[in-house]
């Protein structure tokens, strides 16, 4: 399902070369854009003659026609993102650098570059003069470069075989981020890519697929990243989405001629087995990967209506109405008062058979024996997850994007919160509202873990949120800011219960 309606598909350009065999180049890029809900435009740099076995030859377009394509598109169909692929000509590379210098700042598009310097069948497109233009003129205009290991070595001037140092050098030349593709390290069982971004570094690994129908792999990965960027995802998220898209396309690759066949373009990836394992390379996310032996108690699903209240006084108001699950999220008060409220809330929860989650204060939750703990992203780094699991408490984790969701899934918590879905007045959020399309994708990916939607959800939006496939709906102001909070709770609870009862039938 595309992020936008048919009236507003984001426009993505590919500036690359034609593969008459249809598996790579411009043809693969356009398939990828379409599958990810974008409208693709193509600026053709060269026409190659190739099939599934070999590249037989190529001819570049004239410099005049190259620039005319760029200008004509810019006038009427400006891009949200541009993918650069094979440009086997020095003059065209120089022209492109000059054109990007002139227009990038004004039009604010993202540039993803796949420096196709040789074909997987062994054809060499790169000459020294082209490498110089890449280094000196193009890299400073690139937001993400996606070299494979041979391309990384060619582009870097470092003789060392150390990939990270070579990538660091390319970033010094000016490209903001580098994704080192590990596909060529065929001696390893997993295929592992390293993302070196402005403020994040991580590795993504997935089982190496035996399918030999892998023509156009690099083209598809870079164009999927561009498409996800055009859909408004941050660069790190786009890399993760694209890697999952590629795994899905590779898993279903098919024969065309007698050589490496083509990838199968499908749709937005939501299948857990295609999702990469994310390992954080920097301190910030240390400890975020689940130690294998950690296991959190499960929740009986669906979670249903999940009120979040800020005091034990609010909890006492709701308890006679028999909520199934409540979160106590205290944000003010002295340490002594907070502990008193948590202790009292846990005692009350036992009397009422309530599943009570404590926000933030995981030590107190363990001390008093709460049903569970809810932690945000910041809390994850400092909390002792092993202690929470060992005490038998459930764990809920907040997420606000694909990177956080991917990490949270690896921890295998009791539930994952997805937010904020709509604008909320209750909390200042540093992130953007996620909206319903993303919520649906996230919930589909989490088919194996309970999910809770949160943020700006009220009676008017309840049905569309439930329709996205979450197993619970968390609300604050839809209850506590209403004139009749008890009545608001009862109405919401009845509607949520009806929804899940209907689903089970
Ligand atoms: C169900 C649910 N989802 C998200 C949150 C937000 O938690 P967190 O990120 O820890 O932020 P604060 O609540 O501490 O502001 C939540 N509390 N509950
Ligand atoms: C705590 C929190 N975390 C993400 S949104 C949010 C507040 C949700 O409140 P409301 O339901 O009133 O929008």
From TrEMBL:
<dbReference type="InterPro" id="IPR004399">
    <property type="entry name" value="HMP/HMP-P_kinase_dom"/>
</dbReference>
<dbReference type="InterPro" id="IPR034291">
    <property type="entry name" value="TMP_synthase"/>
</dbReference>
<dbReference type="Pfam" id="PF02581">
    <property type="entry name" value="TMP-TENI"/>
</dbReference>
<dbReference type="InterPro" id="IPR013785">
    <property type="entry name" value="Aldolase_TIM"/>
</dbReference>
<dbReference type="Pfam" id="PF08543">
    <property type="entry name" value="Phos_pyr_kin"/>
</dbReference>
<keyword id="KW-0784">Thiamine biosynthesis</keyword>
<dbReference type="GO" id="GO:0005524">
    <property type="term" value="F:ATP binding"/>
</dbReference>
<dbReference type="GO" id="GO:0004789">
    <property type="term" value="F:thiamine-phosphate diphosphorylase activity"/>
</dbReference>
<dbReference type="InterPro" id="IPR022998">
    <property type="entry name" value="ThiamineP_synth_TenI"/>
</dbReference>
<dbReference type="InterPro" id="IPR013749">
    <property type="entry name" value="PM/HMP-P_kinase-1"/>
</dbReference>
<dbReference type="GO" id="GO:0009228">
    <property type="term" value="P:thiamine biosynthetic process"/>
</dbReference>
<dbReference type="GO" id="GO:0008902">
    <property type="term" value="F:hydroxymethylpyrimidine kinase activity"/>
</dbReference>
<dbReference type="GO" id="GO:0009229">
    <property type="term" value="P:thiamine diphosphate biosynthetic process"/>
</dbReference>
<protein>
    <submittedName>
        <fullName>Hydroxymethylpyrimidine/phosphomethylpyrimidine kinase</fullName>
    </submittedName>
</protein>
<keyword id="KW-0547">Nucleotide-binding</keyword>
<keyword id="KW-0418">Kinase</keyword>
<comment type="pathway">
    <text>Cofactor biosynthesis; thiamine diphosphate biosynthesis; thiamine phosphate from 4-amino-2-methyl-5-diphosphomethylpyrimidine and 4-methyl-5-(2-phosphoethyl)-thiazole: step 1/1.</text>
</comment>
<keyword id="KW-0479">Metal-binding</keyword>
<keyword id="KW-0067">ATP-binding</keyword>
<dbReference type="GO" id="GO:0046872">
    <property type="term" value="F:metal ion binding"/>
</dbReference>
<feature type="domain" description="Pyridoxamine kinase/Phosphomethylpyrimidine kinase">
    <location>
        <begin position="19"/>
        <end position="263"/>
    </location>
</feature>
<feature type="domain" description="Thiamine phosphate synthase/TenI">
    <location>
        <begin position="310"/>
        <end position="479"/>
    </location>
</feature>
<keyword id="KW-0460">Magnesium</keyword>
<dbReference type="GO" id="GO:0008972">
    <property type="term" value="F:phosphomethylpyrimidine kinase activity"/>
</dbReference>
<dbReference type="InterPro" id="IPR029056">
    <property type="entry name" value="Ribokinase-like"/>
</dbReference>
<keyword id="KW-0808">Transferase</keyword>
<dbReference type="GO" id="GO:0005829">
    <property type="term" value="C:cytosol"/>
</dbReference>
<dbReference type="InterPro" id="IPR036206">
    <property type="entry name" value="ThiamineP_synth_sf"/>
</dbReference>
<keyword id="KW-0511">Multifunctional enzyme</keyword>
């Amino acid at each position: 399902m595309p992020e936008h309606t048919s009236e507003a598909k984001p426009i993505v350009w590919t500036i690359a070369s034609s593969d008459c065999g249809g598996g790579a180049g411009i043809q693969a890029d356009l398939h990828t854009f379409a599958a990810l809900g974008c409208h693709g435009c193509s600026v053709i740099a060269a026409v190659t003659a190739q099939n599934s076995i070999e590249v037989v030859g190529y001819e570049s377009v004239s410099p005049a026609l190259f620039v005319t394509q760029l200008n004509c598109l810019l006038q009427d169909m400006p891009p949200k993102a541009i993918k650069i692929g094979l440009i086997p000509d020095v003059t065209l590379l120089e022209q492109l650098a000059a054109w990007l210098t002139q227009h990038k700042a004004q039009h604010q598009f993202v540039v993803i570059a796949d420096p196709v310097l040789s074909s997987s069948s062994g054809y060499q497109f790169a000459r020294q003069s082209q490498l110089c233009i890449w280094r000196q003129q193009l890299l400073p205009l690139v937001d993400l470069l996606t070299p494979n290991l041979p391309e990384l070595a060619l582009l870097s001037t470092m003789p060392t075989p150390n990939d990270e140092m070579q990538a660091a050098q390319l970033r010094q030349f000016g490209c903001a981020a580098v994704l080192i593709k590990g596909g060529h390290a065929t001696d390893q069982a997993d295929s592992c890519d390293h993302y070196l971004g402005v403020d994040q570094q991580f590795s993504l690994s997935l089982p190496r697929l035996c399918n030999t129908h892998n023509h156009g792999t690099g083209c598809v990965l870079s164009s999927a990243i561009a498409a996800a960027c055009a859909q408004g995802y941050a660069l790190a998220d786009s890399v993760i989405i694209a890697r999952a898209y590629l795994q899905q396309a590779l898993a279903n690759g098919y024969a065309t001629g007698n050589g490496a066949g083509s990838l199968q373009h499908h749709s937005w990836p939501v299948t857990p087995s295609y999702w990469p394992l994310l390992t954080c390379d920097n301190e910030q996310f240390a400890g975020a990967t689940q130690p294998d032996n950690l296991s959190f108690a499960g929740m009986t699903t669906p979670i249903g209506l999940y009120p979040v209240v800020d005091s034990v006084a609010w909890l006492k108001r709701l308890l006679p109405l028999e909520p199934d699950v409540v979160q106590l999220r205290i944000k003010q008060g002295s340490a002594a008062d907070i502990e008193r409220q948590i202790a009292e809330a846990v005692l009350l929860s036992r009397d009422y058979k309530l599943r009570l989650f404590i926000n933030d204060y995981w030590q107190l939750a363990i001390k008093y024996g709460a049903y569970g703990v809810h932690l945000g992203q910041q809390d994850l780094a400092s909390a002792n997850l092993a202690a929470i699991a060992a005490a038998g408490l459930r764990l809920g984790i907040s997420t606000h994007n694909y990177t956080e969701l991917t990490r949270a899934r690896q921890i295998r918590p009791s539930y994952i919160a997805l937010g904020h879905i709509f604008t909320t007045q209750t909390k200042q959020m540093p992130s953007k509202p996620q909206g319903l399309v993303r919520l649906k994708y996230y919930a589909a990916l989490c088919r194996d873990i309970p999910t809770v939607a949160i943020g700006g959800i009220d009676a008017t939006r309840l049905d569309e949120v439930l329709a996205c496939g979450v197993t619970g709906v968390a609300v604050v102001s839809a209850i506590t800011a209403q004139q009749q909070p008890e009545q608001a709770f009862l109405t919401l609870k009845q509607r949520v219960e009806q929804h899940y009862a209907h689903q089970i039938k």
